[in-house]
Amino acid sequence: MQAQTTGSMGKTVPLYVPCRKLAFSAPFRWLEKGWQDFRRAPWHSLAYGVIFVFSGWLLIYFAWINERDALIFGLPLGFLIMGPVLAFGLYDISYQLEHNRTPSFRHERQKALHEMGHELMFAMMLGMLFVVLSIVLSMVGGVGPILGEKTGAYAVGPLLIAATSAGVAFCTGAFALPMILHRDTDAATAIMTSINAVLRNKGVCALWALLIFALIALGFATALVGLAFIVPVLGYASWHAYRETVPVER
Hints:
With 250 residues, this protein is mostly helical. The chain has one domain (33-90, 116-245). The protein is 73% helix and 2% strand. It contains eleven helices and two strands; from the N terminus they run ββααααααααααα. It has helices at 26-40, 42-65, 69-86, 88-98, 105-114, 116-141, 156-173, 176-183, 187-200, 202-221, 227-245; strands spanning 4-6, 12-14. It has a two-stranded antiparallel ribbon with strand order 1-2. A hairpin with a 5-residue loop joins strand 1 (4-6) and strand 2. Helix 1 (26-40) packs across helix 11 (227-245) and helix 4 (88-98) packs across helix 5 (105-114). It starts with a strand and ends in a 5-residue tail after the last helix.
């Protein structure tokens, strides 16, 4: 059943779009379809993948010359949190391939600009959520405000904030941005739909999150070179995850 609320004009507005119940094998099917999309548009995919690799190298370089080791170790978390936003162009490639079109950077740029308002709203809402989350954890769990603290109870704080932030980012972003691209929906509805889909398929989504983490870790283990292939495949797989989970018209 789809939750609804009443708008200012008396019309019922959906809080979220209902989702399907998924089989436990679904994440592996998404990865297979993601790899198929990569093979259909290899050079287009690698162009995005190389951007991720060079961006990671650049961030590591600046962290190293400024002696900010914490930033280097926090980079994988940053990829997990910001990955769905940065992969917006990859979703559009899968969208174009789904409609038997030849992917073009022009179409991806136009789509990204068209949805810029929803993307910015999504990023702003996610950022506000992280700030509130950090404050609550600091007050309830005794987490020190300085993330550089590494002794005693303060050592648990950064890890707790990082783990919780990654979980929240996954729940809110797993299906939200593909839905924004596909349906031109608002950020709030997309986020609520994503959260509902994750909560209804906890086991499947936990496996999906674990696979994403493992593949990103593999990419970092190859000095980021592997991300040139892993990131596009994950981006395409995320699109297929949305298409299989949220039943909407093509």
